[in-house]
Design goal:
heterodimer; A: alpha/beta; six-stranded mixed β-sheet; two-stranded antiparallel ribbon; 29 helices; 8% strand; elongated; B: alpha+beta; six-stranded antiparallel β-sheet; 6 strands; 15% helix; globular
Chain lengths: 713, 84
Amino acid sequence: MPALKAAAELNSSCAGLVIHKKEAGDRVVALAGNPNVGKSTVFNALTGMRQHTGNWPGKTVANAQGYCSRNGHGYVLVDIPGSYSLMARSTEEEVARDFICFGSPDAVVVVCDATCLERNLNLVMQVMEACPRTVVCVNLLDEAKKKQIDIDLPLLSRRLGVPVIGTAARSGEGLEDVMNAVEQLLGEPPEEKQALVPYPGYVEQGIQALLPQAEKAAHGKADARWFAARLLDGDESLRSSLADCLGFDPEQAPELSETLADVRAGMEEAGVSRTRLRDDMAGAFVRCAAEISRGVVSVTANGSSRRDRRLDKLFTSRLTGFPIMLLLLLAVFWITISGANVPSALLADGLFRVEERLAAAAFSAGVPALLTDLLIHGVYKVMAWVISVMLPPMAIFFPLFTLLEDFGYLPRVAFNLDRCFKGCAACGKQALTMCMGFGCNAAGVTGCRIIDSPRERLIAIITNNFVPCNGRFPTIISIITMFLIGGATGLLGSFLGALILVGVILFGMGMTLLVSRLLSRTILKGVPSSFTLELPPYRWPQIGKVIVRSIVDRTLKVLGRAVTAAAPAGVLIWALANVTVGGATLLARLTGFLDPLGRALGMDGVILTGFLLGLPANEIVVPIIIMTYMAQGSLLELEGPALMQLFVQNGWTWVTAVSTILFSLMHWPCATTCLTIRKETQSLRWTAVSFLVPTACGIAVCFLFSTIVRLFI
Amino acid sequence: MKQTIPLTQIRPGRRAIVSGLSAEGGLRRRLQDLGLVEGREVTCVELSPLGDPTAYEICGAVIALRREDSDTVLVLEEAADASA
């Protein structure tokens, strides 16, 4: 959008975020809330954007922005990561707090979960303390209704003293009213606000003592009472944010520091310890939330949570938890492989027929043979391969996986597996980041922000690559189908394929645990930190919407990436195969150079070349291998299962197939993932470690495997 | 007079009332934010297949806690009732 670039930009660097306003008068509205209350659904509905949503806490980890305009006013909506509290504990909570407290939003909409309103009110009141212009959006009213929970919205609004709107964001109910309320609130002059949450008397006295100097130090950038309360609270993580955002340095404000020390000393004298002070301050919010929700929330029966508990018994009990997990994995893969076979073949047929037509047309139009070779037999062919091999499995796998995600199954996986991760001194939420890795490792790495402990987050980042992303999935699936199911066809063949694929995934998980364990014994020494994971209610997925969304948003996006990376790779390969130096083509020189290493790892030089040149995107590894074989050999007309023939002619056996699958599972992360790791860790060193660890594992495993096979066969 | 016990000792299906926290620092804050404050009711929902962590119902939400963490929550167990 050119208008966006030309527009005025307001820089609020402390939240690490540049707000994109289209006009200087645009209003900034932050969307806050506990994890998994439907903030992103509200955000999408209001802005018409398609930020990915899912039924698990921590789905949104970065601030997303959207724009909407109404009645002549522009609104920039900022979707903030879910947080339980502004008294931050995790990185994502810090991001949320910094933006609400220092980002100077014009208003904050706090999205609440109607099914557990009381806990949500804790955050509502913390937000209200920091930002006076707050609108409360009580979401998931539909679910609450099913659970026979009734909420008296007008009473809640009277008690809180701010507008309260009830919504059911998934069906769009009430969303208009949210923006109406924001608009109305911003149209009114700011009221002198009353302290909603009273602290115990001695805390209030301390705040009063600090207030005059706090006002000076905050100079209008943050609420003075809030600022004084936080100083008293002595939140460690707040210190750097205060310095970044307010330019506040305690050393520069000796009077304030002195007063603070005096107040604290006074409390110590009265026998109030720091822990007691902080408890009393946190407790004030929790108790106030309980008081406010009394009479607002009424529960008549709890039928639907009984259904949830029954499902939990099924998905997480000792007897059925793991078998069902494996069966689900197997079922998803089986449906993917068996469903993808036919459309894959059809697509390949169709696209290659087009290639012949194009070539014939180019010939009769007098296009030089060199150009035809490059564009049609080079670039077009690669893209045809990419599309026919990747599109069908992705179009089936993504919707299936999204259904499980929307249903609320993924947190149960983390719950089941946490013990294993704890044994490796890692965090169970790593299971969630691994699930994200199935889609894209770069997304998985960003998702690691849901892990609170920096040490455990690094472990999750370094090992994320052991989960094959959708760029590697089709490679692995097609090699399994060609070489490892022993010619079995039909449903049996795809079942065998799915079984082997489950084995590959389990092997990847095993490596994840092993490497996590090694890391926490060596360069990332430490003990497992605390762990709290919310298990959300099960939600019946909106099947039609999921299918359309995951095909349009994810499948086509990934495919687009693959095609844009494949086209230049096609040109590069073509160039390497056609430039001759000293009697051999550059391509031959490269593959020849890599051949000894490739052979030692059970593969060959061409396959390694494929992995090397596939650094920009794993999707193009197989196409590069195909092109290289074709460029080197005499150009045979391929018939029947053409791809397999080509590979067999070039010396592939089941050992090559297994080695290639293993190396695909374990080698360097793609370029996008490397850049994301650099961004997330802010460290070249950890990026290098994340690059080297999976690569070393792949080399070691492939070398061991092929050596052992050579010894015995 | 009933004795306070760690939350860890509450079996699935049983309820208890929080009487205090022994955790410090960040964990203490997090547990409080989740609703684990004095006087609050907690129900043990389910153990995970490997016996740890355990899911608890707190404030209408289901939260999984590891043994090390739920050990720091002190509770008074409620008498068994018909619905348990």
